[in-house]
Amino acid sequence: MGQLKSMQPEHLDVVIVGAGLSGIGAACHLTEKCPQRNYTLLESRAAIGGTWDLFRYPGIRSDSDMHTLGYSFKPWEGAKAIADGASILEYVRQTADQHDVYRKVRFGQTLVAANWCSRTSCWTLKVAQKNAVDITLSCNFLYMCSGYYSYQQAHDPQLPNIKSFAGRVVHPQFWPEDIDYRDKKVVIIGSGATAVTLLPAMAETAASVVMLQRSPSYVISRPSEDWFANTLRKLLPATWAYSLTRKRNTLYQEALYKFTRYAPQFVKKGLLAKVRNELGDAYDVDRHFTPSYNPWDQRLCLVPDGDLFAALRAERASVVTDQIEYFTQTGLQLASGDHLDADIVVTATGLKLVVHGGAAFSVDDEVVDFAKLWTYKGLMVSDVPNMVSTFGYVNASWTLRADLIAEWVCRTLNYMTATESASVVPRVPEALLNMPSRDWIDSFSAGYISRVMHLFPQQGDSAPWINPQDLRADRKLFKQPLESDSALQFKV
Q1: 110 strand-pairing partners
Q2: Are 14 and 127 in the same domain?
Q3: Is 492 helix (H, G, I), strand (E, B) or coil?
Q4: Contact at 8 Å (CB) between 179 and 339?
Q5: The pTM is what?
Q6: Residue closest to 203 by CA, chosen among 224, 185, 222, 179
Q7: Segment 168-203, tens digit of pLDDT
C-alpha cells in the first residue's frame, strides 16, 4: 500500500490539448524547434482533424483560402484554394504523418481539470478516458489547442414549438449518416457560412431548399481555384510558390478588412453591387442580402464559384427573410403569415463557444475566473503560469495566428531552457490594474462571439494587454525579445 500511495503521475514537459488543425500544427512546431522537450497530445475523439473530422454535412469546405488556412511550413498543393473538408482533413493527416506526430496523440482522453502548483512549478491534470477510469498527468507547460466551441453541444436558439414538427430536425455539427434528402423539402435556418454552404449542396438533389434567415449576411464570391497560386507552382518550387501566394493573400485580407473599417459604406456598396450582378435587377437584394451592420462587423460569407447564386438563379433554392412564429406539424409558420412546408429542417444556428475546452482551472487550488483576468497578447492570461491558448483570427484565416502563437511558444520554451526557468507568468503592473477594459474580441458583433465574451479574459488599452486580431500588429507584439518584456516574470 505504501508503494501505491507514493506513485507519482506520469510527467511530461508539454501537454497539448486537442489534435485538430491547431494542435497538430503546434506539435509539428515543437518537434522541429524544441526537440529536447517531450510532449503528448490529448484528443477527446478517436481521430485527429478536429473540425475537419467532426463536421460531415453536405458541401463542408473552408471559408478561407488554403494558402492562409494551411500551415506556414507545409505548402498547400491542391488545385482548389477553397477546399472541401475531406481534402483539408487529408492535409492535416499528411502533416501529422510527415512530422511523426501520430504516435504522440492519446485518443479518447479529455482534459477535465488542471491545477498549477507554484511550489513544484507543475500542472496536475485530471484526464477523463473514454471507457476507462480517469487518470492524472503532470506537465511543466500546458498548451491549449482545443478550439473555441463545444464538440458536445451546438447553440440552441430555443425555436418555438419545434417538438411539434413531424419531420426530421438535424444540426450540421451532428450530421446523421442515414439522412436522405433526395426529393425532400428542406428548410435551412440560418444565414452564416454553414447555411450558404448547405444550400447549393443540398439543392442538387432536394425537391426544394429554402434558407430561412432572420437577417442577411454579407456574401462574397471567389473562384475556388487561385490562378496566381496554380501558375506559380508551375514556375517555382512548391515552397516558394506557397510562400508568395500566402503573402499576397494575407495582404489582400488585411487590406480588405482595414478598408471596411475606413470606408464601410463604399465597401458595402461594392459588395451589394456584385450580388446584384449575380442575381439580376429583379431580385430583392435589399431584403435578402443587405445586412443592417457594416462589412466585417461580422464575418463575410465566402461563396466559391458563385455556387449559392447559381442555385438561386436556377430556382433550385430560395432565400426567405422572416421571423419564425412557431413550428407546425408540417413546417414553419412565419411572422409574415406565410407557411414554409418542410420534410427536413436543418438548424444552422451556430456554435456554442466554450473557454479553454470547458475544463476547470485553478492555481494553487484557487479557482481561476478568466473573466476577472487580463489577456496577454491574446495567448496567455495574467497570473496563470505556463499556459498558452490558441485562438486564431475572426477576420482572417485561423491558422495565421495559430502559427504565430506556436512560434512564440517554442521561442519561450527555448528561452526558459537557456535561463533554467521553471515558470513564466504575465503580471499586470499595479499602476495598470484599473486600466480601461474591453471585450477580448471587440468590433465584431457576431452572435456566437458576443454570447460568451463575458466569460473570456479582459482586454486592456495598451500592449501587451491586448488581443488586436491583426496579423501585422501580432507579428510586432510576438517578436518582442523575451528578456526585455517586463510583463513576463520568469522564475528559476
Answers
A1: 128
A2: yes
A3: coil
A4: no
A5: 0.94
A6: 185
A7: 999 999 999 999 999 999 999 999 999 999 999 999
